[in-house]
């Protein structure tokens, strides 16, 4: 039975292939564990010297007006960069906590519309600086859901902050709506927007669109990556619709019961 022999040989080599594939996957998983450990260790190592630099910077910054003008500018530059470094390090530490699986949600029943209004109130001054007006549209409904309000507030602030940053001074509309399965919050801006190709990368770690169009240095490129981690810890998700010059539409969806179904209409339209 040559056929049976060939089949047996084929099966054996298949087995061998599956084994080496499995081995390779294990190696890759180990590698990413090493990588995760590395990011976490480096972030923790940098914490202590940065705290010292921060204290020194505070002293220099407080006295900046007693220096010659050029030195004042240097002190201000130093201060901005130290702040930026701290933000980056905080974000890196947060990312490494997700990778280690050590983030615990503190759930409490929270009304998403009320939370959104709080965020808007806190960001109105920043929006006004850019000539932007933020409006909340929350047509009643049952908008209360179990969530970690601290984390969800951070997501909403991040989405609104991005809308202000890239919104070109146009209005920002925050909508909260709900159905039987989920509660959703959408942040709509009418600014720069981005290409479909860029929109695919917007949740990637460290990804930022063409830096030449950015006016401020702020931001780490980790904001949306962190927001996505938080959303998925809730069993929810964030999706995006965006077009160049038409603006962007980011939607956060949270299931009524963590791990439950989320609303699944495609975000391929501008509400
Ligand atoms: P950061 O804001 O720190 O750069 P994010 O993860 O929040 O990091 O955003 C990543 C990138 O996605 C931004 O740098 C920007 O290029 C793009 N982006 C995010 N929100 C918007 C938006 N509302 N409109 C246009 N581009 C956006």
UniProtKB/TrEMBL annotation:
Segments forming domain Histidine kinase: 41-258
Q: Where in the cell is it found?
A: Cell membrane
Domain of life where this protein originates:
Bacteria
User: What protein name is recorded for this chain?
Assistant: Sensor histidine kinase MtrB
Q: Which residues of the full protein are shown?
A: 258 to 528 of 544
